[in-house]
Please model this.
Amino acid sequence: MARDLNNKVAVITGGIQGIGLEITKAFLKKGVKKVILLDLNEKSGAEIANILNSEYGNNKAVFIQCDITTDLEVVSKLIFDKYKPVDILVNNAGVFCEDNPKKCMEVNATALIEWTLKFWEHMRKDKGGNGGTILNTASIYSYRIDPFCAVYRASKFAVLGFTKTLGLEYHYAKSSVRVIAICPGYTRTKIVTATAEQEQVQQDYDKFLKTDVVWQDPDAVGRAAVEVFECADSGTAWVIEGDRAIEKV
Model:
């Protein structure tokens, strides 16, 4: 599959805010044919789609209300029936909830795995598809260790292990579907909040976020996601952090 975005159909989960929205904008600037945004907030989603269509062209953006933990079968069928073939899936939706391990794993890991496998089957050349690319949003927490956010970190470790395994040449040679990951560093979005249960841990984490990390804005991740799309081999993962160039991890 050509590593360019021009005239491609892309599906982006969690696509109406933060990193997901910036990836959407970056893809539209590169000439995608259509971006299908999946998110929970119907009102905000419709508004964002209208804004994007005004800026980038009529019918470039479509919003579908979706809970990725429950709506895979219904929403994927709708997409495949109406917009096939889909060339790109960006699994970006995520939560940060240390106090709810089940939800954290369901959204960040289980749903991502299920959406990947569904779209992988749709895209597979050996099953009649055209090939494609699946881009999973992992995190620097997929491979770095510090004393905080053990539950969130576990969910992102799962994303990286799954992505690198399904993306191996063994699978790509048959399917022609790239499976790759981006690992953003600390990014100024609503998801980055301290949720530690113990007061002292929370205080330490707040201090850590203020003094010990490099911050970036979501648009930096959007631009870097395009770079990764254009250069990455299947099964690779790329750190996006501050003003550093993208780098394999």
